[in-house]
Design goal:
Chain lengths: 205, 205
């Protein structure tokens, strides 16, 4: 498997290239991608070579060719189904987040302890956690977003993994323990913001 | 200024130690912190030495001493005021996010183009963007969260910086350009989730 840093860079390229395409460009040079992303031109060229994207005869690359190659890499021709645990503030924002659609990511179901939330009309059906094995099986999902409070996050995480989940994006402010075969990405909103605060205060002095 | 990696590790230690404290521990050894955080015991000891936290005579550390040192490092005795741009799904989740309070982070005001949102009752007052200079000045804020759509993010970002903002946490899916004196942290929800999907699919094969 390629490194996490490599896949991250591909996502960064895609974001910048989609933007450049929107403003009307069709071709780019590696140094332009470098300027947009902050990644060195040499590394851009290396990554594109690894993606098997060829430059044009006069130099530069076609934006569409790169975008296709990146989309292929991520298997973006299929729809990626995801379940969500926790319909609190963050969970509801995730369900309503329109950008997932453009990436062919679909939240197919959510879980919440609260029966009131199970009855309410959201953009996705909300089930009690007991339904987890059925839903994961029915939709053949292997990725989950955890947006439950810290105190229940590990229990929910263990449960999801038992049901066959192998990839987790975690918003709960805890260090979740997962077996080796499970990939976890922690989105630490507090930590991120605190880092920004810390750095912006220091640069003041 | 210390490295970003170092401040990130301190936040990771704090999270784990707060948890260990909650479950009843008062003292820890570096290898226990290592086991909880996935950071090597040697690096844990180095970081604690840099924080000027001393070990106990019989080995190990007092959890409270470490937590105090980390809180001091982040200046957590003062309240950190932050403004928010964009009261969409993500923005509202940020305003309602309870964990910020524990970290002495306070969202003092939000900005949104939509006059309906300016009239609505949220936990923070919502102003038109034109009020930005006044609000930033009045509350002496230098950190902002950007949660506006991609197409307006750069304009909003430039405006905030003009008003004196020096630290930005950005949720908009664009590579924002900021001057050197501004610290920016990008929270790429789509990219994060796509990485999880990518890795969990690959481990399947």
């Amino acid at each position: 498997m390629e490194s996490t840093a490599y896949t991250k860079r591909l996502l960064t390229y895609r974001l910048s290239l989609s933007h450049l395409k929107e403003v009307g460009l069709t071709d780019v040079f590696s140094y332009l991608i470098a300027g947009e992303t902050g990644i060195s031109a040499a590394l851009v060229r290396k990554d594109l070579a690894q993606l098997k994207v060829k430059g044009k005869r006069r130099g530069g690359y076609e934006i569409d060719v790169i975008l296709d190659a990146i989309n292929n890499y991520f298997g973006d021709n299929t729809i990626n189904r995801v379940v969500l645990a926790g319909m609190g503030n963050i969970g509801r924002a995730i369900v309503n987040y329109k950008n997932f659609e453009n990436r062919r990511i679909k939240i197919v179901a959510a879980f919440d302890l609260d029966p009131a939330k199970q009855r309410k009309k959201y953009d996705v059906p909300v089930y009690p956690m007991e339904k987890c094995p059925d839903i994961v099986d029915k939709y053949r999902v292997n990725v989950a977003v955890i947006a439950v409070p810290a105190f229940s996050a590990q229990t929910v995480c263990d449960r999801l993994i038992q049901c066959g989940i192998r990839g987790i994006m975690n918003f709960a402010p805890v260090n979740l323990k997962v077996p080796d075969h499970v990939y976890i990405s922690n989105v630490r909103l507090c930590d991120e913001l605190q880092q920004v605060i810390y750095h912006s205060t220091k640069t003041n002095q």
